[in-house]
Write a structure and sequence with these properties.
Layout: H1 11-16, H2 37-46, H3 49-54, H4 56-69, E1 75-76, H5 83-90, E2 92-95, E3 99-102, H6 109-113, H7 120-123, H8 125-138, E4 144-149, H9 151-160, H10 168-176, H11 178-202, E5 206-211, H12 219-236, E6 240-241, E7 244-245, E8 248-252, H13 259-263, E9 269-271, H14 278-285, E10 290-295, H15 304-318, E11 324-328, H16 338-352
Parallel strand pairs: 1-4, 4-5, 5-8, 8-9, 9-10, 10-11
Antiparallel strand pairs: 2-3, 6-7
Helix pairs in contact: 2-4, 4-8, 8-11, 9-10, 9-11, 10-11, 11-12, 14-15, 15-16
This protein binds coproporphyrinogen III (CP3).
Length: about 350
């Protein structure tokens, strides 16, 4: 009997543990989002993005929306990585069409010292409540992924006060105040551990750490300021819940040159963006961890024939056997035609069966 017996579809969890599956499992980063008209409608009902995240019922509704349309092999909690800095009192808001912003910024060692010690698990009970509601609604159909940002990626937003083209302020802070930066990352790593463990206890069956901006660092700075803290998080995670292993996925965008180091973190899988050949990545890391990825998200604007061909090339590059979770190399973008997502998901399932004898 399968380790995941009560799950009707356990391909995703099995592939993360490099166990054999009948077809390669697939999900999509940002699978609940603005490319779906039903998402835009629910978001409008909620009023704004944070109200959507803070209502467990609405967060559950948008988590389920892509699963009603497509046979994805996993659901991902609907929330955002910036809930942690918000719970630390930084005042997150989303200006229409401008992305995330913070009312407060971290610009000095004193700002880091003054960051309050908050009980993340209780401050973010709206997130763990959403996890419970979603697990009930999924009813064992597919596993639920919980997530968090990496300490480095969260720190960039907190220092800059929002997104940035070059993260000049965050990098200058790191270069000029490495000790304060380490203290900030330490506080964030401990918050992330509490947050992910609370999600796991509430029912998240795998977790992903989004290190969206680790790839803008030098190799030395990546190890010191990003990977180092993800290692601590992986060490601090609950490894087993409900008698099952809880796999951890580390996704560093543009981290292709550091795969060996990432594999050493103790994670079960590495998320790959589209700039690394997945077959070459597999040859480098062998069977140490599973790989997740890695179609260029922009491919979803191409024709159904081109999408199917690209899915086939990625499957062929990975090759025979276990240890691949299909995904995009980064999140789906808002202008994609939802019909093309159906082509993507069906192509993965149809074309992958031949690689699982
Ligand atoms: O994958 C999923 O479907 C789960 C939901 C999810 C969201 N954000 C919902 C969201 C996840 C996993 C995230 C993670 C996230 N948030 C990351 C890391 C992943 C990545 O894409 O790199 C980052 C950097 C953020 C911070 C953030 N939140 C940004 C930069 C934005 C603006 C994005 C944009 O394109 O405008 C958000 C808002 C956000 N988070 C939206 C969604 C669906 C769009 C908000 C809206 O409805 O207007």
């Amino acid at each position: 009997m399968s380790e995941f017996a009560e799950l009707k579809n356990d391909r995703f969890l099995k592939a993360l543990l490099r166990e054999e599956v009948d077809q390669t499992p697939v999900w999509m980063m940002r699978q609940a989002g603005r490319y779906l008209p039903e998402y835009r409608k629910t978001r409008q009902q909620a009023g704004d993005f944070m109200s959507l995240c803070q209502s467990p019922e609405l967060a559950c509704e948008v988590t389920m929306q892509p699963l009603r349309r497509y046979p994805f092999d996993a659901a991902i909690l609907f929330s955002d990585i910036l809930t942690i800095p918000d719970a630390m009192g930084q005042g997150l808001f989303f200006a229409e069409g401008e992305g995330p912003k913070f009312r407060k910024t971290i610009r000095s060692a004193a700002d880091v010292d003054q960051l309050p010690d908050v009980n993340i698990a209780s401050e973010l009970s709206y997130v763990t409540d959403a996890v419970s509601v979603i697990r009930k609604e999924l009813n064992g159909s597919v596993p639920l992924i919980g997530f968090s940002g990496s300490p480095w990626t969260l720190a960039t937003y907190m220092i800059e006060g929002g997104g940035s083209k070059d993260f000049r302020i965050a990098k200058q802070f790191m270069y000029d105040n490495p000790e304060a930066m380490h203290l900030l990352l330490e506080k964030l790593a401990s918050a992330v551990i509490d947050y992910l463990n609370a999600q796991i206890k509430a029912g998240a069956q795998a977790v992903q750490i989004f290190d969206t901006w680790g790839g803008i660092l030098t190799p030395a700075a990546y190890r010191e300021f990003s990977l180092n803290y993800m290692n601590k998080i992986v060490d601090g995670l609950i490894k087993e819940n409900d008698g099952r292993q809880v796999p951890a996925i580390l996704f560093t965008k543009n981290g292709g040159q550091w795969l060996e180091d990432i594999a050493d973190s103790g994670c079960q899988a590495i998320g790959l963006d589209w700039t690394t050949d997945i077959g070459q990545a597999r040859a480098r890391i062998g069977d140490r961890v599973a790989l997740q990825g890695n179609m260029d998200p922009t491919m979803l604007y191409a024709s159904p024939q081109a999408i199917r061909k690209e899915v086939g090339s990625i499957l062929q590059s990975f090759g025979q056997g276990a240890g691949h979770v299909f995904n995009l190399g980064h999140g789906i973008t808002p202008e994609v035609n939802p019909d093309n997502v159906a082509v993507f998901v069906e192509s993965v399932h149809e074309l992958s069966a031949q690689y699982h004898a």
